[in-house]
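So, read this over?
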Amino acid sequence: MPTPWRLWFAFASRSAAVGQDRTVNEFLVAYLDAIDERLLEHLDGDGELSSEAVIWLRRYTDALLDRSISPTTLAEDWPDWYLLTAAFVTVYAPEEVEELEERTAFLNAVENGDDVALTEADQAYLWALRLHLGMYSEKRKTDTEP
């Protein structure tokens, strides 16, 4: 998990980006690099989340929703899911999804090493995340079509 100073830097970078003419992908690169440089491997050549990363984010989100994986098991299998979804929500999702994210219980529980059942607020966040990951995938497809 990222250290508090890395998260502070990432959010400070977002605040600075809002007041400047920085593109989303420039912010995403700075955000992920501030958290953990190795997360940059999940970006494509345009500095956007790769389609493969989005597919995996969506698969694990679906697995959480259908309860075929627990939040703790996900943290063991692919801890990057937590960092990449936080980055995705910060960079691409509307404010409503960020508000849902703030109400979740499982994100804090996993960070503390606790395993919890998903609450209604957790499920609402995951459904919104799933929806926006799908919309992002479709938009990226249409952006790359000739």
Observations:
- Residues 1-22 have pLDDT under 50 and may be disordered.
